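Subgroup meeting minutes
Present: P.N., E.W., G.H.
Scribe: E.W.

1. P.N. recapped why we're keeping a running log of single-chain structure predictions: easier to compare across weeks, and new members can see raw inputs and outputs side by side.
2. G.H. added today's entry (533 aa).
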Amino acid sequence: MLKKRSVPHTFVIIFFIILVGAVLTWFIPGGEYEREIVMDNGVEREVVKSGSFEYSQNDPQTWQVFSSLYHGFISKSNIIAFILMVGGAFWIMNESRAIDVGIFSFLRFTRKLEKYRVIRLLGVDNIVIALIMLMFSLFGAVFGMSEETIAFVIIFVPLSISMGYDSIVGVSMCFVAAGLGFAGAMLNPFTVGIAQGLADIPLFSGIEYRFFCWMVLNIAGITYVLWYVKKLKKDPTRSPVYEDDAQWRNNTRQDVEDIRYARPLSAWITYFIILVSLLLFSLNYSITTLEIGKASMQFPAVPILTGLFAITAFIGLRRSVHFYILNLLLYTILFLIVGVMGYDWYIMKIATVFMAMGILSGIAYNESGNNIAQQFLKGVKDMMTAAIVVGLAGGIVFLLEEGNIIDTLLHYMAEGMQDVGKVGSVGVMYVFQTLLNVLMPSGSGQAALTMPIMAPFSDLIGISRQTAVLVFQFGDGFTNMITPTSGVLMGVLGMAKIPYDKWFRWFLPFLGILVVLGILLLIPTVTMEIAGF
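Output recorded in log:
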């Protein structure tokens, strides 16, 4: 019997690429481009000077294969620390099950809408599915929800079955929706934040067009799922997983763990501490100049958000500490937007804000210091693979730079695409990122590997670095929902009891739609004047 071949581990793939890079330094001639400092939206940025390439001596690499790993971790240490801090902070917050409570409340609210005739005509089920998908898509777009969707499968698959549909619809409500948000992310610190930081462009710039892309992708995704739901309404047996769902149908009662609703004193203490801190910030930062693309506006953003937090957090805490923690998450995101667009916050300050959110969430939930530390370590452990991938990918770039061939590779790529045009070049970059994601599903790792190369390459062919980041987003996001190398996908399918081959056949047509939409959304970034691009 032939031994079944397994997909190489991501670490193995990266180390193999490092070896290939070392071999290339022996055969590819060295070369260098001149760099120049330019102003981009008021920010100084070093770019490659087109037409300045000159060949030089290469430096063949040998034992540096191993030292490059160390240097990769050092060069990407800020990104690695960011990933670990944010991952740990979210794990502390998730321990409170605040997001679960928010979702359950959302479902109860939508059921109350049945009393309205217009809602009944549109279909309550359709509205519920669309709203849930929008909510999870927002989670994916704002803070990169991915692994967390595995836990929600156990909620939404039984819900879908009880509504008369199948496990695929249940998975689509959380996993596919979060995947759409991940691909069209606006504020995701793990993809957009890291990629833009590595591309040396303002953090979360170009948010206007990304928001448009997010809406287009969600319209397509929700339409596709509702079309499938309509087909199942006519005949549930047309589901490709109808027989596989037999176990779910035999137990359609949704088992939800009892959640202890409470208003602990510790939550009130954190409320007053945060409120006093925000009042002091409001005195020091009474007027904020928000810059969105080339537009700017001045208004009292910090005082307004402080006032709103005082009201909504108080109301939320009167109900339960869970709603208060949801408020902390909401205002963390809102203050992050103000900080980035008004005060040029970068990775360190963003990680600090998320860290504070996580610790305050743990204290508000009345967790002991030891429990908060343990939850933080669990979150760090969960993100460790992504952090290591970033460091290893940094080693690839370091090795090519030390071998003095990275500019030569850029030169070859630019020469090869001279006759393709900007749209064609974007298409080639898009295909490359999409294929790479099949081998390396880690978004952070992909950004660390490709952005240091794609950013200067985009300079050479006259494409915005913002476009290069968007190419990375689409290439990374779409195939995450179908590639068997994605641990999240396989975990979701395992939890939902959906065979991979049936999921592949169901999702493949939708993937084709997403890929086409991706290229259509990329074309305007090289043919039109778009804010931030």
